[in-house]
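Data availability excerpt. The first of two example chains:
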Amino acid sequence: MAQKHFGKSRTSRPELKQHVVVPFPVKTGVDQKRHAQTVVDPYRWFRFRLRNGFTGAVPILERDVARLWRSVREPETFHSFAVFDSPTRRIGLNLRHMTCSQFDGHRGAGLLADAVPDTGTVDIVFSDSKEPLHIEIEPDEFALLDGHYKKRSKIMEDEAAATLVQIAMLFSYCESTHTGSDYVECLQDASCSSIWIRLNDVALVSAPIGHLKAEWRKTKTCRDAPEERV
């Protein structure tokens, strides 16, 4: 009697094993946190403390790091303010009222400070109080060096013309403040009320970047350098 051989059917297929199918892994919270840590932060954090007890942390643009570093390490004997930008605000810091500062560092270590509030107002911290004064001000209509502003200022009263660029003017006077000066700057708020500020007694001033008009100017490091918009 012929022996029967039972072979595999041509139509039969082997069962797929589960490990053959490799699904894309779902990102967990740990994976997302690990990815966030690998992203390079384009800004450098600067933390500071004022004599009145106010502390602040500001992410500063890379272009301002070296200049601010020099100002902190070797403050000028004549000028007292350092003016620089964060991604959202322009900052004026009176170095004579600053007692401590730290660049970078790890969160929770060293100088502890909260981020400078990103408000829609011009915020001023005076030397005698750590509570900021919030002033609601209309955005500037022109840049200080704008030719249109110069034309308008010739046909307007001085006080009216000043309100067109008052935020830029405030920071310009901060940079001009020096030993022996006693500048008093006037700001007109949204209700058209005038607020007079003695700049030597200002420890910190900040304003939304969007409230200032961009200006074209040459960099101070090289006379032949191309103009940049700030």
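And the second chain:
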Amino acid sequence: MVYPMMGDPQERHVQSLNWRQTMFENTASEFDNRPLSSGPLFQWLGVHWQGTNYAVSLNSISAVFQTSPSLTANSDNAHLDVAVHDGAVVFMKPFSECFATAPSFIASNELPQWAIVLQAALPAPLGCRVQSVVGPFWAKSGLASLEHDGQNWTVVHRSGASHA
């Protein structure tokens, strides 16, 4: 399953297909008509990795797709981890190398089942695996954490080390 992320971030919205599928579309949404006094809203993707909820700006993601669980994704000893997206190889790195996260001492036995392809001008696509994804959802930018569906999501930004 492939979920492409296209267009201006304020023009994306989610269309439910069934309980397992979601497709991102590049069309206008009800948020385009919100009053300006509420401040600018941005779309975020909630990701669950190593026992923590993180919020990633959709501006830094080009695609999200469900993948087979990878045993190498939770290991620091992996020599090469790749996924195939839209017929192309995506080189996978640990989430902590793609996004600036605080050191985590929580080890999760839950295998990653989702792949995130990063938005970048690199010759080869680069991504990371996460245990689960939520959203996208709308929230303000500039905050250290966001609330969505009664849960807190720590905002993370692209790491300078996220290159092939």
